[in-house]
Design a protein that fits this description.
single chain; 169 residues; mainly alpha; two-stranded antiparallel sheet
Length: 169
């Protein structure tokens, strides 16, 4: 993988220096970048105004914080407080402004965001299929379940459904 930007130079060590919390968010953030979600959101939320923080990056970072357990926008600080891991991250007030800008954009903004998310999802599924030929089966106890996707979070199986794709994931 060619790394650029915030991910460049990231190293995982066990020497007890440079310790960060919530380091798993870096994997989620890298995934968002690698499947094109962040770039797609950036295009969807592009503005003619000069902005310090790209709104697509802010929205992707908010999604990463939610995946890490954030329940309110102020929990976004978990990402922002880890500058040595993530680089410069938007502030909580910038996250609020991004939310307000999206809300002001109404249905048009939501359609653009939805299109970006769907394109990233299609790209992720295509990358899995290209690597494995199909989604690999899930090994449980003494058998392999084919045709299902299992996302293991905190050792719990969570069933999800995406009506847009008509598939279980």
């Amino acid at each position: 993988m060619n790394t650029t930007g915030w991910l460049k130079g990231l190293q995982v060590t066990a020497d007890g220096t440079g310790i960060v919390s919530h380091a798993g968010v870096a994997l989620i953030r890298a995934l968002a970048d690698n499947i094109g979600l962040t770039a797609g959101l950036s295009r969807a939320l592009a503005s003619d105004r000069l902005l310090v923080h790209d709104r697509g990056r802010v929205l992707a970072d908010l999604a990463c914080a939610i995946a890490d357990g954030a329940e309110v926008i102020s929990d976004f600080r978990v990402v922002g407080d880890q500058e040595e891991l993530f680089g410069l991250v938007a502030s909580v007030p910038t996250a609020w402004r991004t939310r307000d800008e999206i809300a002001r954009g109404g249905e048009r903004a939501l359609r653009k965001i939805t299109a970006a998310v769907n394109a990233a999802r299609r790209r992720a599924w295509a990358q899995i299929a290209a690597r494995h030929g199909a989604l690999p089966g899930i090994r449980v106890t003494d058998k392999t379940l084919e045709g299902v996707t299992c996302i293991r979070l905190d050792a719990s199986v969570v069933a999800c459904h995406s009506p847009a794709l008509g598939t279980r994931s």
